[in-house]
What we know:
Blueprint: E1 2-8, H1 15-28, E2 33-36, E3 39-40, E4 43-46, E5 49-52, H2 53-62, H3 68-71, E6 74-75, H4 78-85, H5 93-104, E7 109-113, H6 128-135, E8 138-144, H7 151-161, E9 165-173, H8 178-191, E10 196-201, E11 209-210, H9 211-218, E12 221-224, E13 232-233, E14 235-238, H10 243-252, E15 256-261, H11 265-273, E16 279-282, H12 289-298, E17 302-304, H13 309-322, H14 328-341, H15 344-351
Parallel strand pairs: 1-7, 1-8, 2-7, 3-6, 8-9, 9-10, 14-15, 15-16, 16-17
Antiparallel strand pairs: 4-5, 11-13, 12-17
Helix pairs in contact: 1-2, 1-14, 10-11, 11-12
Amino acid sequence: MAGLYVGATAGYSGKNMVVMGLGLRFQKEGYSVGYLKPVGAMPREIDGRMWDDDAYHVQRILHTNEEPETLTPVIASHDFQVRAFRNQTGDVMESIRAAYEKVAAGKDVTIVGGSGGMHTGRYCNADGVRVVRELDLKAVVIDRYSKELNYDYLLVLKEQLGDHLAGVILNDVAQNFLDETQTLIAPFLRDRGIRVLGIIPKDPLMGAIKVSDLADRLGGKVISAHHKSDRIVESFLIGTMQVENFMTHFRRQKNSAIIVGGDRSDVHLVALEGDSPCLVLTGNLYPNDIILTRSEVLEIPIIVVREDTYTVAKKMETLLMRHKLRDEIKIRQGAQLINANLDFPVLMDQLGLRR
Length: 355
């Protein structure tokens, strides 16, 4: 029986993608797979029972069938947090250990999904480092590239986890940083005893979002070409510049939503004719009839939002980084990225799964 903890240096680093990718790969190799998430931070009521939203989704993909209190023994609701701050929760590791033993019974490998970073949950004594040590798990830690990699954090984790650390995955690495990651950062980590199990390049699809979901998350509404609300947005451009300059930038960016004031008809027209996946018009300003008609003809949705362009752009930046892995196409793509870029033989050796 092997146990693998999938954690990260920070939240929104790709833990669910790795959990699903690993789980599906192990299953394909013929291993029976168990899954649980000890601490859930996204409470969701389904059919009168409280689940963690992420864990519920991952379980559905992996076709495991645990009850909610076993799948996620600790749900970090507001009530739980208040009790934890008052030292009224007791030792939550007891329920985590019981859930793990139940899930792992009869399984070849049990994947334990982390929440947030490796030290998240320290306030209730259920952080990733403690879970790994007390359940005697191997750990894979994901570090997502965001302007730089958190190599200092990885060195600290190596000291804290020792031989429990099976290796690290460097995720979402920008194309212009790949060479430095492969030739400088990865060797640096290896020299300090940290296995680099994989370097996953940035894939625009993994951060993409449907137009309809984008409208919901921005608090706006789609006012045209509703039947094309399933188009995919991978990035965004702000259309505040002169139209000539905007055209230059727009040609370089595919699948980019255009965030622009509702009174900039010149930019609207360029974006529509250039096949932007959608326009996001700010300030609660509606376009004129010519733009609306052109939007319908070209089948490009227009979203209208109340907030100003700067605020919407900041929201978009966060959305594209933190949008959850839900669509089937993204799950398949995530699994392919894991298969193509992870050193499975080394990981399986670490888990004692090589046959």
